[in-house]
Structure formats: C-alpha cells, structure tokens
Amino acid sequence: MLINLLFPPRCPGCGTWGVRLCARCAALFGPPVPVPGVGPPVFALAAYAGAARELVLAFKERGRRELAAVFGALVAAALPELPGVGPDPWLVPAPSRASAARARGGSHVLGVARASGASTAPALAFARGVRDSVRLDGASRQANLAGRVRLVPDHLPPPKASLVLLDDVVTTGSTARECVAVLKAGGFRVSAVLTLTTAHRTHPHG
Ligand SMILES: [Zn+2]
C-alpha cells in the first residue's frame, strides 16, 4: 500500500522498521506477576523499562492507538490467571486527567479495557485540580491525590461484581491505593489491580 511506502510501520518499542510490533518487544509482556507493597494485590505484565516502556509511551503519548488491541489481548489473557478474582470480573480503568484524555482522544486505559472484551465500568475520575504526578515523589503524589479521585455515578459496575482495577503503569502504587479506597468506600469489592507495567524494581521481567 502507498501509505506503507510513505509511512513504513516501525515497532514503537525498539524502532525496528517494517513491523507494527516486533516479536521481541511483544515478548516483554508476560503472565501477571505480583508487585509487593501496594496494598491490594497488584499484578503486572511487564517492567516499566526499555522497549516495554516505549510501547506504553507510544500508546499513551504518541498516538499509537492501535496498541489498545495488543494490550487488550494481554489483559484478556491475564484475567483468568489472577488469583482470587473469579470468572467474569469487571474492569475499572484507572482515571486519566481530563485534559490528557481529551488530547489522546479518550482515556487510553479505558481503550485497553474495552479492547480486552471484559465488562468495563469507567467508574473513576479525577476531580478538578489534580496535577500530573509524573514528577512527584511518593509522598507528594499521595498528597496530590488525596480526596481527588471520585466515583462517576453514571458508570458504576454492578454492586456484587468482582472488580479489577486496570492501569498502565504502577509506580509507587499511590494512585492504585486511592482508586481502590474510593471503590471500597462506595461499597464495591476490588479483587485485584492489574497493570500493564510496573516501575517497581522487583519485577522479574525487568
Ligand atoms: Zn520492537
């Protein structure tokens, strides 16, 4: 196709020309592995490093929206492997800042949840005034978030559903903790947190 001559595909993970996603980068994402020290059980598919990190950033910041299908398939494969979750869990995407989500054409984590085929409830949103937490350390991040995640009444999951919070990167776990606390306060049962990647340094895929 002409479009491929003008814009040949390139792996967003490592930059290899001629492929949309190379096998080596795809293989960086493995079965869910528990990440310690976050509170609720958190499982990650890859370390937030190298090409896996590039893939997440390409999807999130550089418009490679087609990676939603790749990540969605990984999430679909991981859900049955999560201990204590049970069949047919509902996914609740971690919230995106509204401005960031608009710039990306909708919440990217919601896109992954929908692409997984699992029941999805975008039940969480950031209240106004949440700063981008990328440059904040753990304590500042927690302070930045405290009381700033809210339930979205129109998008709640069924009351008895087993919920899995879905995120793209878990670093300190403060966002995940806040989200789980808000869902629990709303009477919901959060069985696990599933993240595409983690910056936690104990991840064995790293
Ligand atoms: Zn690659």
Describe the fold and architecture:
The protein has helices at residues 2-6, 23-26, 50-61, 67-78, 98-103, 108-116, 138-145, 174-185, and strands at residues 33-35, 42-47, 90-93, 124-126, 149-151, 162-170, 189-198. The chain is α/β, with parallel strands linked by helices. Strand 1 and strand 2 form a beta hairpin. Helix 4 packs across helix 6. The relative contact order is 0.21. The structure holds zinc ion (ZN). Zinc ion (ZN) binds at residues 11, 13-14, 16, 22, 24-25, 51.
Give a brief description.
With 206 residues, the protein is an alpha/beta fold.
Strand order in space, largest sheet: 1-2-7-6-3
Give the overall pLDDT as a whole number: 85
Mind telling me the C-alpha Rg?
17 Å
Principal-axis shape: globular
Percent of residues in helices: 25-40%
Hetero ligands: zinc ion
The CATH architecture can be named as 3-Layer(aba) Sandwich
Per CATH, what is the topology? Rossmann fold
Main sheet summary: 5 strands, mixed
**Count of extended strands:** 7
Which ranges are low-confidence, i.e. pLDDT below 50, for 5 or more consecutive residues? none
Q: What is the highest CATH level, the class?
A: Alpha Beta
Number of helices: 8
**How many structural domains are formed by the residues?**
1
Which tags fit this structure?
five-stranded mixed β-sheet; 18% strand; single chain; alpha/beta; binds zinc ion; 206 residues; globular
